[in-house]
Amino acid sequence: MMNNFLQAALALSAGLVLYTYFGYPLVLVLLTNFKQLVADIRFAAVKRNRRRSRCSPELPKVSLVFAAHNEAPVIGWKMRNCKHLNYPADRLEILVGCDGCTDRTATLARQANVPNARILEILNRGGKPATLNLVVPLAQGDIIVLCDSNTMFEPDTLMFLVRHFEERNVGCVCGELRLVDGSQKGSSENLYWKYETMLKFLESRLNMLVGANGGIFAIRRELFTPLPPDGIIDDFLVAMRIRAAGHRVIYDPEAVASEELAEGVRHEFRRRIRIGAGNFHALKYTWKLLNPTMGWVALSYWSHKVFRWVVPLALCIAEASAILLASDVRYAALAAVGVLIVGLGLAGYRLDLRGVHWAPCSLPYYFLSMNLALLLGFVRFLRQSQSTVWKPTPRPSFSPIHADPEDAGLAPEDGPRFKGARV
User: Fold this and answer.
1) pTM of the predicted model, to two decimals?
2) Domain 62-261: which topology?
3) Does residue 248 sit in helix, strand or coil?
4) For 74-132, what is each residue's pLDDT tens digit?
5) 178: left (phi over 0), alpha (psi -120 to 50) or beta
6) How many whole angstroms separate alpha carbon 385 and alpha carbon 387?
């Protein structure tokens, strides 16, 4: 009887892990191909033009908004990046929310001398959600583009983002964030990020994309609602609320931003714990999208998000069940595979301490650390001990992004200080 229970627990746990990382992508591929086949058949029968033409000759006004806390190493280059965006200056404004900075972030942002930028200093640090709640209502643009202070846009990124809002049912557009490996040693995170990007692309094709990346996404201004004071992962909450209101959330791989990878997996670990806690917390505000009556988006939410959040528990159950069933050689082999993966992960951790990347060890290390962070995030969620404030992740100094802003030819003079409402 006990063996039957353990075998069922092993099968269900292992099945959930395999479906989450392999089965679900396959489902997306099959659904995408079927949808494309149907569209091609309709096009062949009707011969209707499938290309989208621009309806309005005037570009919408855009407000580029981001929060910054002690980002002195990158803020000058971020402002310079904003200055060189290919978007009419009279249709673009930049709002920088300096969240309780104790370094020269605000000063360097002003020294960039971007004429259409406002630097808002928030004296008491409240975290990114609180900063956005203060800054976004001050924006005057029709479209709000949200990003991070360490993400750099390609010149035409804004043009690619705003074109989709010609369709009234589009409420949020997520761009493509490309991770730059400054160490030039290869990265498991970069490989995993490409996997995630593929899922976003397929989900967008099927109108079942959930969530957005905080590094680059755009929304209609009227769809922004104040984030809850205990909100942690603001980008996910903003996009999911827009989705729940009946608007489309889409992904555009041509709207590109770049961000530098952290030095190693261990440097990202604290951030991943925070995201893990935020994931479970977000269920409080987005659970209605799990209802099957919401359509394909419910499949995406369950498969891409919720199942992945419970993978750490499933891995533990699967390995424990295999060990208890190890009297059977088949289960002993499965238990040995689990032990081998853990051993390779520990070796990957030791290599990461030395700044070495070797895929046979680094991939298990990244996978296990990601799931351990989710597990610890769940513990923080239960204890309600996760703060909404954040600490910038250290990045390797390999590019001009981390050089002195004055080396970029930025203007040295300070602009006027923006004040108001303790901002």
Assistant:
1) 0.86
2) Spore Coat Polysaccharide Biosynthesis Protein SpsA; Chain A (3.90.550)
3) strand
4) 999 999 999 999 999 999 999 999 999 999 999 999 999 998 999 999 988 888 999 99
5) beta
6) 6
